[in-house]
Each structure stands twice: as structure tokens, then as C-alpha cells.
Design a protein that fits this description.
The structure holds two protein chains of two kinds. Chain A is of the alpha/beta class. Chain A has 18 helices and twelve strands. In chain A, the strands form three sheets. Chain A has a six-stranded parallel β-sheet. In chain A, helix 1 packs across helix 7 and helix 11 crosses helix 14. Chain B is an alpha/beta fold. Chain B has a six-stranded parallel β-sheet, sandwiched between helices. A three-stranded antiparallel β-sheet of chain B has the order 7-8-9. In chain B, strand 7 and strand 8 form a beta hairpin. In chain B, helix 1 packs across helix 8, helix 7 crosses helix 9 and helix 8 packs across helix 9. Classes of the chains: A alpha/beta, B alpha/beta. The interface between A and B is large, with 158 and 152 residues.
């Protein structure tokens, strides 16, 4: 059996919804052992969100939960009780990493903040993910995923519009929960870096992640445009003369001709239409002036073709074209199949389903998914009895008391 | 912490052959964490971010005046090596000997043709970690295909899901690159952890379009479980309503408001001065609000329209309703919260002067992540890297300059 990148690393996750759980899921796929702590009965909020198997709401069949929590052990624990807090301390004393996303001061009130946990586990890396971070005037402000996205500039720029009138329509978030997932990736990066430091120094630390700042870091150039140049960019189309969205017979495709040779390749595959042969169009500045006319001309051509057809011709001739693919089209694509990008995972309630896998392949330490997402409290016995040494009777008592 | 400060990755050295956005951002994130990054480039084929903004079309004049390059390559050392010259290729191999990581995102196959593919570099330094980042990954029928942020968004599935309901998909921009770069940096640090434990290097094959797909897990599960193909739905949520951006005073000013519970709804009604709405059956439950959300959107928009974004945020946040302006570039600069969190850092650049950079996305207590300096001028650190690190003599360097190997 091959090695994994984070073999032997233990992670405790006390987090909800997308960002924290995705951070821990990434660490799990890289080889860490993740114990996910959920509140008894209801569990993670994402369990109540769709998509559900056959659209029947059930806490064990949320596709969102299943994806974000595969490869983890799951325990239930009520942290509002003192016994619950003691058990949490036991868990935290044995872990390398704690991922949590509670509002600032919540854990402090429970005696479970970084300083107190550090006293029992100096090696602990504790990653806290909140909408606005641990300090500052908005630290206690509420933000759901929509708010976090729009707090971070990227929303203000989405979608690109072509006219002033279109600015009357509201700015949008990117599809799904991409902002939250992105925060999870960013958090996983800082956490593994702290783990690296821990390996050599034996020292742990606290990592404070504001979702707003993490998402802003995906748009750092535009974020600084007012600060440095007093510019007020908005979602009015900026990238001109460089391509854009095309209409095809069966949907849409994006074309990008950032370089002169890419434009030439496009002109060639369009069959050298008269209007496109104007030599001044070899320069972006001139294409930008005639942006609208150029896009119309290209669309006249693309409308007569399928998106996949122009994708492959474009790539072969040297003009980057990307078809706008649906989930189904990605799932069915030859590229995804060849790279074994989708993996099947069997879950006791949701059956065998196809899941996206890690988006990078490590030659020596392939990712490993060894179990589906846990049902609520699935590993209580394994974790509390076998690892923490509670007896079977104590487990029953704790369950009856609503602590686990 | 002392003035120099230690980073989590202090002592890690990276040879950086990346260019454009996704690659350089990955290695910049690693510099925030303390790694030393040596950016290898040449005026023979300069990074387009050195010459112009593809966002605005602006030309920067010369190679050393680009704020975009400066941001994407902050904290790095710069060495100018012309990789079409065999002696430069050898110098890169010598850099690989003294590096922990080499990163590249050239057109797939290019590094192999240059004689810098993983099998070669692995012989040069068996414990090297190589990051190879590409549009579609290094295997499969589309492995040679190229792309930019907008095509990653299209091929990855995000564009299809972004836009107004029933309208065209959106062209997604730089954030696709930078999320991909963040995932790439994660893969590198995971491999560094493995190397610390075992001494072994490896090859990382990252697909930028797969990075985007991996952020859409629930949409793929919906297809797997229910054969449903999700599509664009604006700002809408599956459960919450209201859940949208609403117009405020001024031009193109918006506030996002999201309501998850009955309690939040009732609070919002009070705050809007519309206690009558609490009694309305059609808005009484989550389910009813969701089904009548267009009407709800109109009611909320009518209330927000004559207020400032900050006024709406302050009012609603004070009573526990999630409301945040859709912040623009000026807001980001002036906002009291971000400033209280020390979000802006100033660095000096030899030609651009003082430049403000946004802070790294993490506050780390033991090993603070930081912006230390701007990006390198073309060849700025040739002396240090080639002379001091590789031990080339002045006369050798001079000869290589004349031969345009150093160029």
C-alpha cells in the first residue's frame, strides 16, 4: 500500500456547513485521520441541505454533507455540558490539528479556546474560520455564504455586463458555494504549513481566517485598484479585444485570444472571414476598440457549430476555447474518465454515488478515500471507548444524558 | 517575533518557472509562509503580466513597471535565464540541486522539450518536489490543451452555474486562477510534509479545471443521485429567502441580505418598519417565503433603495440579521473593519514606488504570514542567485550575459 502525504496526522473538526468541513476533507484525502464532532441529534447544518437522494430530505442523504465529509470518522458531542467539554479536551489533547468555525469567543466561554487547549497540548495547530475573523468591529457580524461572497469584492464583479443599463441588475455570487469551498482550500494550505512548522519545532499555533479576507485574496489585483490608483472598477466589461462568451448550436463556449498567434489561429479556424483579416486586429488595442463588432463576427461563426467541435479545433490550431460544461458533460467527458477524476463511494443510506476527487495527483502519495461520510455518531464507540478509554456503560450513560 | 520573523516554511527554497497568474500566485502564497522563491524568466518571452494588464488593456511600458507582476510575484528573487539556451537549462538544473521544490505551468510538454521534465530533474535531485500545473492535467486525451482563467471556469463547471436564471452563463475571471493557485500551493505543502518525514520528493500533476470542479461537489452529487443537471439561479439559495442583493443609495450600490430562520424574518420585518408582514401567511414559514421570494425581493428592495449600504448593514446586524454591502474596490480600502485587521501592507518598488498590497489570507500566531517586498525587476537578483548561490564567477556571468543565456 502506498504512503500518503499526511500519514499519521490527526485532525479534530468541530465545524459546520462548507468551509471548515472542506478544509478537513482535503486533509483527510491527503492522508490525515479526521474526527468530526457534531452536535447530537441534528448534526452538521449541511445535513439539512440539498441535494438529497431522490429529493427526499433526510439527514443521512444530503449530497452536500456526503461530499464534504467523506473519509472522516464521526462522533456526536454536546459541548454545552461540562462533561461534553471535558471529553472535547480529551480529544483536543491527542490531536495535531483542530479545525473550528464557531463565532469568536464561543469556545472561550466553554473553556476551549486556543490558550486553554494549548496548555494541555502545546503542539496543537488550531485553525479558526469565521466570516470576519477573530477581531475587528465586524467580528460578531452574521454572514451566510451569500454575504461572505459579496463582502469580498468578487461578487461586485459578477457577472460581467456589457451596458450601463445592465448595472441595474444585482451583482451575483458565483454558482454553488465556491467562495466557501475556496476558503476551505486556503485554510487547508495555512494549516498544512503550520503542520510543517510543528514537525520541526514541536510548536503549535493559532490560525485566524476571515472568510472575507480569504475570498478577497482570490481577487487581489482588483482589490488594490482603488488603493493604488484611485480606480473604481465594476462589472462593466473590462477585458476587451481578448475574447469572451460565444453562443454555439448546443450551448456556450469561451474563447480567449490573449496573444497575437491565438487570434491568428482563430481567424484561420473561422475560415478567414473578410472582416477578421484586417491586419490592425493583430493588436489587442485595436481589437478592443472594435470589441463589440469582433464578438458579433465570431458569434456568427460559432452559432453554426457545436461547442465541443470548436473546442477541439481551437485547441489543435492554438486558440484556447473552452466549452461551458454542465456537471453531466464533465462527468461524461473523456478527460475526466481518463484521469479517473470521479470515484465511487458506497454509503449505507445513499448507496453508491460518484464523487469528484482531489484535483491534483501526487505521484508518491496518491489520495486515499477509505470510508464514506459518517452517519451521526457512527464512530462514538470506536473513538470514545477504544481511544479515550470510556467503558461501554459510561457510553450508554453519556448517550442517555444527551451528551453524545 | 523579531523583525526578520520566521515563517512556517522558512528554509524551503523554490525554483519558480511559472508565469501568468495561477502559477506565480501559488508560489507567492508560499513566500507569505516563509519560503524563498527564485523566479526564473527572460525578456526573450516575458510574462505578459510584466507588459500589460489583460484586464484593462493598459500597457505598462517596459518590463519593470507592472503593478500586476509586482503583486503576483511579491517577495520573490528574480533571475533572468533564457531557457532556449542550453547553458541556462543547466543553470536551472543547478538551481534544482539546491531547491526543495520546482514549480511550472508552461504549456504541457514544454518543460520536457527543454530537458527539464520530472524524470530528468529527479535524477538531478531525487528529493525534488515538482509542481506541474496545467489547464486539463498532465494525462488524458486533452493533456496538451491550454487555457486561461475563463476557460478553467467554463470547463470546470462554474460558468454553467453562474448567471441570472434563464440567462447566459458568466465569464469568470482571475479568481479561477487564484483558487487554482491556492490548491497548487496546498499540494506542494502536503508534499513538503511527506518529504520531511520520508526524505522523498514527488511529482504533483494539477488540473486547474479539476480544481474548479472539486468546488462544486454537491452539484455533481445531485447529478449522481438524482440525474439532475443544476443550472444558473442568480443569488438564489435552495432554502433561504430573502437571499439576494438589494439596491441602495447611489449608483451601483448593493447590500446582500440573507434570512435563514423565522426569527430572523420577524426581526427583519420589525427593522423595515413592516410588522404587518409578520402576520402574512405567504411569508410565515421558510417554505412560504421561498415560494414567494420575488415578491419578497421587491418589498426588501423598496426598503433598502433610499438607504446607504452601511446604514442597512448597521441596522440589520445590530438586530441579528445577516446584511453586508457588496463591497467595491474603494470600500475594501476604506472599510473600518479591514483596516482594524491590518489588511493593507505597503511595499516599496524601485520603479513603481510605494504600493499597497492586501494582506495574506491567514493570521498565524507563531509564524506570521507577511508581504515583505515587491516583485523583482527583470534579472534583479542575478548576482545573488548565480554568483552567491550557484558560485559562478563574475567572468562566467559576464560571458553568459554576452551569449544571451542570461537575458
Amino acid at each position: 500500500m502506498s504512503d500518503t502525504a499526511l500519514k499519521g496526522v490527526s485532525v479534530l473538526e468541530y465545524a459546520n456547513f462548507v468551509a471548515g468541513p472542506y478544509c478537513a476533507r482535503l486533509l483527510a484525502d491527503l492522508g490525515a485521520e479526521v474526527i468530526k464532532v457534531e452536535a447530537p441529534v441534528n448534526g452538521d447544518q449541511s445535513r439539512t441541505r440539498g441535494p438529497h437522494l431522490q429529493d427526499k430530505p433526510h439527514r443521512e442523504t444530503s449530497g452536500l454533507f456526503l461530499y464534504l465529509n467523506a473519509n472522516k470518522l464521526g462522533v456526536t458531542l454536546n459541548l454545552s455540558s461540562s462533561s461534553g467539554q471535558r471529553i472535547f479536551k480529551d480529544l483536543a489533547s491527542q490531536t495535531d490539528i483542530l479545525i473550528e468555525d464557531n463565532p469568536p469567543q464561543t469556545l472561550q466561554k466553554l473553556g476551549l479556546d486556543y490558550l486553554q487547549l494549548k496548555a494541555i497540548n502545546p503542539r496543537l495547530v488550531m485553525t479558526s474560520i469565521t466570516p470576519f475573523g477573530q477581531n475587528g468591529p465586524y467580528k460578531n457580524y452574521k454572514a451566510y455564504y451569500l454575504n461572505s461572497y459579496h463582502a469580498s469584492l468578487v461578487g461586485y464583479f459578477t457577472p460581467e455586463v456589457l451596458s450601463e443599463e445592465e448595472l441595474e441588475r444585482e451583482p451575483l455570487k458565483v454558482g454553488g458555494y465556491i467562495g466557501e469551498y475556496g476558503v476551505g482550500v486556503s485554510a487547508a494550505l495555512a494549516t498544512t504549513a503550520a503542520l510543517y512548522y510543528q514537525y520541526f519545532s514541536g510548536e503549535g499555533q493559532q490560525i485566524d481566517i476571515s472568510k472575507q479576507e480569504a475570498i478577497l485574496n482570490f481577487f487581489g489585483v482588483d482589490a488594490a485598484r482603488f488603493a493604488n490608483w484611485q480606480e473604481h472598477p465594476c462589472r462593466m466589461r473590462q477585458l476587451k479585444g481578448l475574447g469572451g462568451m460565444l453562443t454555439c448550436r448546443d450551448g456556450h463556449a469561451l474563447v480567449a485570444f490573449n496573444e497575437e498567434h491565438q487570434w491568428q489561429a482563430l481567424v484561420k479556424i473561422m475560415g478567414n472571414p473578410e472582416w477578421a483579416l484586417d491586419p490592425k486586429y493583430l493588436q489587442q488595442a485595436h481589437r478592443a476598440e472594435d470589441d463589440e463588432k469582433i464578438m458579433e463576427g465570431i458569434i456568427q461563426w460559432s452559432k453554426q457549430h457545436d461547442k465541443d467541435e470548436i473546442y477541439h479545433i481551437g485547441q489543435i490550431e492554438g486558440c484556447p476555447i473552452g466549452p461551458v460544461l454542465s456537471t453531466q458533460e464533465i462527468f461524461d467527458s473523456a478527460q475526466a474518465r481518463a484521469r479517473e477524476y470521479f470515484m465511487e463511494i458506497e454509503h449505507p443510506c445513499a448507496g453508491i454515488q460518484s464523487y469528484p476527487s482531489l484535483p491534483f495527483k501526487l505521484s508518491q502519495t496518491p489520495s486515499r478515500v477509505s470510508r464514506p461520510a459518517p452517519i451521526r455518531g457512527q464512530h462514538n464507540k470506536e473513538v470514545y471507548c477504544q481511544r479515550l478509554g470510556y467503558s461501554q456503560q459510561e457510553l450508554i450513560k453519556l448517550t442517555q444524558a444527551g451528551i453524545i | 517575533m523579531n523583525g526578520l520573523g520566521k515563517g512556517a516554511l522558512s528554509g524551503v527554497r523554490i525554483t519558480d518557472l511559472t508565469w501568468a497568474w495561477a502559477g506565480p500566485f501559488a508560489t507567492t502564497l508560499l513566500t507569505y509562509l516563509g519560503a524563498e522563491v527564485i523566479r526564473v524568466e527572460s525578456q526573450k518571452r516575458p510574462d505578459h503580466t510584466r507588459t500589460r494588464s489583460i484586464t484593462t488593456g493598459q500597457l505598462f511600458g517596459g518590463l519593470d513597471n507592472s503593478p500586476i507582476f509586482n503583486y503576483m510575484n511579491q517577495n520573490k528573487l528574480g533571475v533572468s535565464l533564457n531557457l532556449s539556451h542550453p547553458e541556462s537549462v543547466n543553470l536551472v538544473k543547478r538551481l534544482v540541486c539546491i531547491s526543495d521544490v520546482i514549480a511550472e505551468n508552461m504549456r504541457p510538454g514544454s518543460v520536457d522539450r527543454m530537458g527539464l521534465g520530472y524524470p530528468v530533474l529527479q535524477k538531478v535531485n531525487p528529493s525534488i518536489i515538482m509542481l506541474s500545473s496545467s489547464a486539463r492535467g498532465g494525462t488524458g486525451p486533452e493533456k496538451t490543451y491550454t487555457g486561461y482563467a475563463p476557460t478553467f471556469g467554463a470547463l470546470g463547471g462554474a460558468a454553467y452555474l453562474t448567471g441570472y436564471a434563464g440567462d447566459v452563463p458568466a465569464r469568470l475571471l482571475g479568481e479561477m486562477d487564484l483558487i487554482s493557485g491556492t490548491a497548487a500551493a496546498l499540494a506542494v505543502v502536503a508534499a513538503l510534509n511527506h518529504r520531511a518525514r520520508t526524505g522523498r520528493g514527488q511529482l504533483i500533476d494539477l488540473s486547474s479545471s479539476e480544481v474548479i470542479s472539486s468546488l462544486l461537489g454537491e452539484a455533481f452529487l445531485d447529478y449522481s443521485m438524482n440525474q439532475r443537471v443544476q443550472t444558473r439561479q442568480g443569488n438564489r439559495d435552495d432554502i433561504m429567502a430573502p437571499h439576494n442583493c438589494y439596491p441602495c443609495l447611489g449608483k451601483d450600490n448593493w447590500v446582500s441580505i440573507a434570512v435563514a430562520t423565522d426569527e430572523e424574518w420577524q426581526t427583519l420585518c420589525q427593522a423595515m418598519g413592516r410588522p404587518d408582514l409578520v402576520q402574512e401567511e405567504r411569508f410565515a414559514t421558510c417554505h412560504n417565503r421561498w415560494h414567494n421570494q420575488e415578491e419578497l425581493d421587491n418589498i426588501v428592495a423598496q426598503w433598502t433603495r433610499d438607504k446607504s449600504r452601511y446604514q442597512v448593514m448597521d441596522l440589520l446586524q445590530n438586530c441579528g440579521v445577516a446584511a453586508v454591502p457588496s463591497f467595491n474596490s474603494e470600500d475594501i480600502y476604506t472599510d473600518p473593519h479591514l483596516n482594524a485587521r491590518d489588511f493593507w501592507h505597503q511595499v516599496e518598488h524601485p520603479t513603481l514606488g510605494k504600493q499597497l498590497m492586501i494582506a495574506p489570507p491567514w493570521k498565524m500566531s507563531a509564524t506570521p504570514a507577511r508581504n515583505r517586498k515587491g516583485g523583482p525587476l527583470m534579472g534583479q537578483h542575478n548576482e545573488f542567485v548565480l554568483g552567491e548561490l550557484l558560485g559562478l564567477s563574475q567572468s562566467e556571468i559576464q560571458r553568459l550575459v554576452e551569449e544571451k543565456a542570461i537575458y
